[in-house]
Amino acid sequence: MPDLALDLRYLRYALLVAEHGSFRRAAEAIDMSQSTVSRRIQLLERRLGGPLFVRSLSGAKLTEAGARFLEEAALGASYIHEAVKDMKATHREGSGKIRIGLMTSLASGFLPNLVGEYHSRFRKVDVKIAEATFEEATAGVLSGRIDVAFLPGKPQLPRCQSVQLWNEQLFLALPRRHFLASADSVVWENVRNETFLIPAGIAGAELDHHLLRQLSDSNFQPRMSLQGVGRDNLLNMVGKGFGVSLALSSTSGSAHREVVFVPISDGPKIIYFSAVWSLRNQNPALKQFLELATEKSHRNMDVN
To answer: Where does the HTH lysR-type domain lie (predicted)?
Structure first.
């Protein structure tokens, strides 16, 4: 015998009888015979081990236990109903949800353009974006909490795939009155004694630390100052002479009158970014997103 306690159809019949106060009126409401409704509720009661209703000539009234059961079961049924809707939406073309993890800026460049184009094409997809450290993003992809993460380099994670999509030039943000502000480019030796300002935001701080770790060697140990501000106010601090900061192409176009962005000419000066996702992830929205990302990356390479 199937588990009738978990059969939403039988629960629906019981809810209708409780609502109408009568087996007959409940049956009429769904164009079904009274005997069928009565028989199915009897099966449900047998499965539950007790009566849901007190029957009389005037109708049907919930027992105390029946009222408690229907109240709790109706709440559970609503959750199941929403879960079914989400499942159907996920497998319907152009619907569902995608969760994106990143540690770079959405100010300009490839990634914000990609996210914007995807949103324009798939309006019914709920796009969730979260800033994350490298470790948080990779853990999120592996656990399924994040569908796709955008990370520097080309991370190799177990049971995951990655594809390099775009690159950004590395700049040094300097105060306009700095002696290197008018230079065509800078080398790290020029800024050996500078203080590098690091933003407090999860993604910004992690990305800056990642880049500075790449640059650090026995001859260059940068002095860093973590500031409790976001990237925008950090650049304002640079303009006021508190220090210098690293910036990628996606942020170098920011309008800060007191700041100049000078390209770096030695060491790592191009930063590559990849999309990383789990091979076990069957989210159709992710498939659409990756197809668009690959298409957009190829278009950019053709232009360049």
So the answer is: 6-63
